[in-house]
């Protein structure tokens, strides 16, 4: 009898939600979801600690008081340099809007499987796409995660089902986009650049805003599966909200730290484009999503990036040909997206492909 390979896909892969629906009768995960079969996986699975991540008071970013403004720019600089992850407080997004958005995405995942399949895009730049894992054509082991992804800016797209989703998402997109834009301006200033430097250099009027909703159903063997493996985001800045179930972990000084959900808060993180632009001064941060055996977790990550045709390179003011030469090749944002999508979602491998030399 032929030995079964752990890398054989299940016959017809629809969603992890459909598979998890067989739980509790399903007592073990199919081998294709078992991450322990991957060499050198130990670090990716190591235990996480509890520690608080920094907070940034968003209301101070728009303050007309120069002292408050300079204090929050310092907080932002410290949070970006030490952690690359922070909680955004006083962001002004109504709690009811955040809840409605999470519920509307949840209702999308609850649609019959055939209806969701209408939105199965193929290419990374398709404006609406749902699926499972990350990219089933390149993933060797599958992630315990379903997703729906849609581009909300510069042109607004959203699935037409469930019927409430598009209307809620339109208003949400504007509000969350304003928060991200203000954070980006603060980051620009905190790097010693003009307030509008990033806006202008990367044409943020036409910047991509991509929403990814993630669903992580209960898993019978959570210690063997991964919701999302360690990765960094391709964006400038990602804003994330989640239901009350934890699972996000961030790497800090070589350890994994739980980012426990705080009601009505937004988690922000630095993505690869800020690492490139700052020539490595601010690093995009590794994070992962773990799963559990009891509750379904939902998260919504909103990626804010440059315009697709904008060329991202280290800011000239932050490099110097002798002591601090550019550490990354210049690349169009849309090419970077294709680079990330065409390989495994794997640590910081996309950034490593354009890195010119190792930086501290
Ligand atoms: O679900 C989470 O908490 C993390 C989501 C995430 O990292 C992503 O979508 O890139
Ligand atoms: Fe992420």
TrEMBL record:
<keyword id="KW-0408">Iron</keyword>
<keyword id="KW-0223">Dioxygenase</keyword>
<dbReference type="GO" id="GO:0051213">
    <property type="term" value="F:dioxygenase activity"/>
</dbReference>
<protein>
    <submittedName>
        <fullName>Oxoglutarate/iron-dependent dioxygenase</fullName>
    </submittedName>
</protein>
<keyword id="KW-0479">Metal-binding</keyword>
<dbReference type="InterPro" id="IPR027443">
    <property type="entry name" value="IPNS-like_sf"/>
</dbReference>
<dbReference type="InterPro" id="IPR050295">
    <property type="entry name" value="Plant_2OG-oxidoreductases"/>
</dbReference>
<dbReference type="InterPro" id="IPR005123">
    <property type="entry name" value="Oxoglu/Fe-dep_dioxygenase_dom"/>
</dbReference>
<dbReference type="InterPro" id="IPR026992">
    <property type="entry name" value="DIOX_N"/>
</dbReference>
<keyword id="KW-0560">Oxidoreductase</keyword>
<comment type="similarity">
    <text>Belongs to the iron/ascorbate-dependent oxidoreductase family.</text>
</comment>
<dbReference type="Pfam" id="PF03171">
    <property type="entry name" value="2OG-FeII_Oxy"/>
</dbReference>
<feature type="domain" description="Fe2OG dioxygenase">
    <location>
        <begin position="206"/>
        <end position="306"/>
    </location>
</feature>
<dbReference type="GO" id="GO:0046872">
    <property type="term" value="F:metal ion binding"/>
</dbReference>
<dbReference type="InterPro" id="IPR044861">
    <property type="entry name" value="IPNS-like_FE2OG_OXY"/>
</dbReference>
<dbReference type="Pfam" id="PF14226">
    <property type="entry name" value="DIOX_N"/>
</dbReference>
């Amino acid at each position: 009898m032929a030995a079964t390979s752990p890398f054989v896909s299940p016959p017809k892969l629809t969603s992890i939600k459909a598979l998890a629906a067989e739980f509790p009768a399903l007592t073990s995960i199919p081998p294709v979801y078992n991450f322990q079969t991957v060499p050198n996986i130990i670090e990716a699975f190591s235990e996480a600690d509890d520690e608080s991540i920094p907070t940034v008071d968003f209301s101070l970013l728009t303050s007309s008081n120069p002292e408050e403004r300079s204090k929050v720019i310092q907080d932002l600089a410290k949070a970006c340099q030490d952690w690359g992850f922070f909680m955004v407080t006083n962001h002004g997004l109504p709690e009811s809007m955040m809840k409605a958005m999470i519920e509307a995405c949840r209702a999308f995942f609850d649609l019959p499987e055939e209806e969701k399949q209408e939105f199965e895009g193929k290419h990374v730049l398709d404006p609406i796409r749902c699926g499972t894992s990350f990219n089933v054509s390149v993933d060797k082991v599958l992630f315990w995660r379903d997703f729906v992804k849609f581009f909300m800016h510069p042109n607004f797209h959203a699935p037409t089902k469930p019927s409430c989703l598009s209307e809620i998402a339109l208003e949400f997109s504007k509000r969350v986009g304003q928060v991200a834009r203000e954070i980006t301006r603060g980051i620009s200033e905190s790097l010693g650049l003009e307030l509008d430097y990033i806006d202008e250099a990367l044409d943020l009027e036409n910047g991509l805003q991509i929403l990814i909703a993630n669903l992580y159903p209960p898993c019978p063997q959570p210690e063997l599966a991964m919701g999302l493996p360690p990765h960094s985001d391709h964006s400038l800045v990602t804003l994330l909200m989640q239901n009350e179930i934890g699972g996000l972990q961030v790497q800090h000084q070589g350890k994994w730290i739980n980012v426990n959900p705080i009601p009505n808060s937004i988690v922000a993180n630095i993505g690869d484009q800020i690492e490139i632009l700052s020539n490595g001064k601010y690093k995009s941060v590794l994070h992962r999503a773990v799963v559990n055996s009891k509750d379904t977790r939902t998260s919504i990550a909103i990626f804010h990036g440059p315009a697709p045709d904008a060329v991202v390179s280290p800011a000239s003011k932050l490099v110097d040909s002798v002591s601090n030469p550019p550490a990354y090749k210049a690349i169009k944002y849309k090419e970077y997206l294709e680079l990330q999508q065409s390989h495994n979602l794997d640590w910081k491998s996309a950034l490593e492909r354009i890195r010119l030399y190792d930086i501290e």
